[in-house]
Amino acid sequence: MATMGELPSDLLYCIILLLVQSPGGVADFARMVSVCRKFRLFTQKKHILSLVSFDMKLEFKNFIQYQHINSLLVKCSEAGNIAAQFLLGKVILVSSSQLFLGEWQKAEFHPCDSATLGELRCILATNDPGHDYKVGSFMAYFLPEQVHNSEVSRRRLVHYQLVKVFLLNGSLHDLAEMAVFIKCYIKFFTSVTEEDDPLLATVNDMILHADTIMKSEKALMELSSLRAGCERCSNAIRNCINHRDIHIAKFRGLAMRFFETNWG
Asked: DSSP assignment, residue 111?
């Protein structure tokens, strides 16, 4: 009986194309390319990489596993895979926060309240004493000066391009979950420390609107469970929808303005 690796290349291509677009696409693809050289050749095909599904949650306790510049996550991002860029944007936010946490721990004065510092220590705890160096090497790959001076043929991405994808495509839950990392990211790359600085005020404003929208959506769900024929409830639902849409538009505008102001 023929093995899968012995199938005609065209048929194998179709099978892998279906595989990478399944819910477990990236995990299944990673396992497949790790066992056969013929399968690994598909990691060089941009069309395949651009379609790999990244329907997965970034687990902070295991975030170290994402910090590899030769990973499928980075390769798929460079192939134009928006789902991969979205996840990599979150990895960039966490990684910059890890480096900033290292700076805080060395300083006598922490440019951060103790609660935030404690939260970061808890989330980003690692037993690897050399991890800061590894994170620094990973982040250097996405610095503008490294990207622009690179002779690598594949498309390199700058850190702010990836974070921008996350901010524009993330759900309100994503925004709230990553709020502390967004603020640390801005402080790390802009040297801003004061919470009332316009840059951080903008992010705080975005986070505030996200919280408002989530509360509105919760109210909308509660109202939707009531009698459909109730005119009073229908008016309240419409008001919630309008309120939500207004704040979503404002958040997107703030995100765009922030990146245009700081990185063009």
From this structure: S
What amino acid is encoded at 132 in this protein?
D
Orientation of helix 82-106 relative to helix 114-123, angle to 10°: 120
Say how far apart CA 21 and CA 113 lie, in whole Å.
43
The sign of the dihedral angle between the CA atoms of 84, 146, 110, 125 is positive
Do the beta carbons of residue 75 and residue 50 sit within 8 Å? no
Hey, what's the torsion of the CAs at 89, 94, 97, 101, to 10 degrees? Answer: -170
* CA 79 to mean position of chain CA atoms: 16
CA 174 to chain centre: 9
Domain ranges (residues) in the chain: 1-53, 63-263
Mean pLDDT, contiguous 10-residue spans, the chain (264 residues): 65 80 80 75 82 80 83 91 94 89 62 58 61 83 76 73 90 81 85 71 73 71 61 65 72 79 76
Q: What confidence tens digit (pLDDT) does each residue in 85-116 have?
A: 999 999 999 999 888 877 666 655 555 555 56
Angle at 180 (CA atoms; ends 174, 23), nearest 5 degrees:
25
